[in-house]
What does this fold into?
Amino acid sequence: APAFAAGLHWGAWEKALRAGAEAARLAGDVAEQAYFHHELGIHALCAGHLDRSRAELEASIGLRGALADKRGAVAGRRALALVADRSGTPLALSPTAGDELPEALFEESAPTPRAVPTAFPDLQPPTDTTVVHRG
It folds into this structure.
């Protein structure tokens, strides 16, 4: 994902994620389905598609809750908080099955003391840059 994003290959990135999500679905691999929903949510967030991002991230959080994947659920909730910040919509989350949010929050990391919250910046590819790929 970072290579696609860094190279501004938004379409290829989404296509790879959708192929992975379909493969995970066909294989019945719920953990991989959760991963690809999360990544599709991040892609949509970067592309400015906030409703799609929210839907993908909520699907990921639900699957990770069913798997009792606390770290994954926390990562999804943090990404969902970015969507809420960008959209101006308050974040209203309730714990999902197998998800003990307060404990999981402290497992991941503690907030920086005296941190000042800032708005999430617009993520747009630069318009004054030309990327030339050489093979």
